[in-house]
Amino acid sequence: MSPKLPTNNAQTITEFLNLHKTQMAEDDSADSYKFAFDDEAFLSRRETIGIRFELELLKPEILLKEHGIEHTITVFGSTRFISRERAEVQVRDAKTSGESEAAKKALLHSQYYESAREFGSLVAQYNTTQKQAADKLHICTGGGPGIMEAANRGAFESGDKTIGFNISLPREQHPNPYISPGLSFRFHYFALRKMHFMLRARAIVAYPGGFGSFDELFEVLTLIQTKKVVCIPVILVGKTFWNEMVNFNQMVQFGVIDEADMKSIHFVETAQEAWKVIQEWYQLA
Questions:
Q1: How far is C-alpha 114 from the chain's CA centre?
Q2: Structural domain harbouring 139
Q3: SS3 assignment, position 162
């Protein structure tokens, strides 16, 4: 009996685009005669995955340079947090005990949304004091709702450029409305999206979040630990959450990380404290 091992454990772009085997065959001249760069079916083949990787790396790189974006602050956090205003509406409109409990939790967690919104505004306000584009720091997020929306919103409301790196998901994640025109990008591959999170990042600010936020955070910490990138400040907002979720000091005591690995990690409570860490790290005026 042959083992039923998968030939590929990835959701390929052909499956994402719902292309069928018959569409990939190119049996007639109408298909084979197309320019390669104009042939969606050909570009979606498994053999061309390297080309798609290169395109997802290159497109944002070129467009960000055209917009003068050289330095970013990447903000991570839960997609589930909402603004205080929306949470207060939920509390007011709750009709059942379950709805009331969920609304109260949303109101409690809205403090993180408002903090990320304030942080985005603080960064934008700093940029107004800088004449050269090369001296500015721009808010960069995953482009979706929650903390991502809040950070983009704070910068947008203060009149600054703000960036969103969205990702294709089974339940499609739509870009939030606070990303600047021309700076909203869509990725299929998480790996390429993560590269762009880091390529221009001069700091990471992480709010409470779930699997995705932890994945992104520990990817950054691993890159710093292994010296694949220069050491940058990694700022964790919400001391209680982070200390309950991850006992970094116990990891040091257990010997699985070194004390030196903690040098880039900063625990803060407020947006102002997060911004102060960055100011002091880079000696910003």
A1: 18
A2: 60-282
A3: strand
pLDDT tens digits, one per residue of 166-214 = 998 877 678 999 999 999 999 999 999 999 999 999 999 999 999 999 9
Asked whether residue 94 is domain-assigned, the answer is yes
Tell me the CATH number at 125: 3.40.50.450
- State the pairing for strand pair 162-167/138-141: parallel
The predicted pLDDT at position 42 comes to: 86
Residue 188's closest CA among 14, 6, 69, 19? 14
Predicted confidence (pLDDT) per residue in 139-170, tens digit: 999 999 999 999 999 999 999 999 999 998 87
Q: Which long-range contacts (CB under 8 A, 24 or more apart) does 278-284 make?
A: 278/73, 278/137, 278/202, 278/203, 278/233, 278/235, 281/203, 281/232, 281/233, 282/202, 284/126
Give residue for tokens 């205080």.
84
